[in-house]
Amino acid sequence: MLVKRVKWRVGNIKTYSFIRAGETEELRGGEIRVIAVETIAVPSMVDLDLCPYTRHEAAHVITVGESVPKGVDEERSIEYAMVAALKDGIINKGDVIGIIKMTPVEMG
């Protein structure tokens, strides 16, 4: 895939959304796992950043995504999270496992 170089201009209004587990998951310390999350709509022309601070006692979100990767110029959604289990534990459906920051951008 060919990647074009573009200039970005970043907006100053940011939106924060909780990433919540979509189902209950039992984890073992040290494992890396993909889990379903409650769907978060991501508008087009929005850049995403994960909050690096751990939000759940059992796991930390490494990345998020959806079944078909899309460009920033398309509407997207967050459907899953890859998590690293910090210790043996349970993530219950609806638990906050992370926070995502959405920042509007312009490409030129």
Characterization of the model:
By secondary structure, this protein is mainly β. The protein contains no helices and 9 strands. Strands 1, 2, 5 and 9 form a 4-stranded antiparallel sheet that branches. Strands 4-7-6 form a 3-stranded antiparallel sheet, with no helix packed on it. It has a two-stranded antiparallel sheet with strand order 3-8. The chain is elongated and about 45 Å long. The two termini are 20 Å apart. The model has no long low-confidence stretch (mean pLDDT 90).
Q: SSE order, as H and E?
A: EEEEEEEEE
Percentage of β-strand residues: over 45%
Average predicted local confidence, pLDDT = 90
C-alpha-based Rg, rounded = 15 Å
Helix content: under 10%
Give the terminus-to-terminus CA distance: 20 Å
What general form does the structure show? elongated
Structural class: mainly beta
Unreliable runs: none
Q: What about the largest sheet?
A: 4 strands, antiparallel
Oligomeric state as shown: single chain
How many extended strands?
9
Question: Any descriptors?
Answer:
108 residues, mainly beta, 4-stranded antiparallel beta sheet, 3-stranded antiparallel beta sheet, 0% helix, 56% strand, elongated
In short:
With 108 residues, the chain is an all-beta fold.
Furnish the topology, listing elements before pairings.
Blueprint: E1 8-10, E2 15-20, E3 25-27, E4 32-42, E5 46-50, E6 59-65, E7 76-85, E8 89-91, E9 96-107
Antiparallel strand pairs: 1-9, 2-9, 3-8, 4-7, 5-9, 6-7
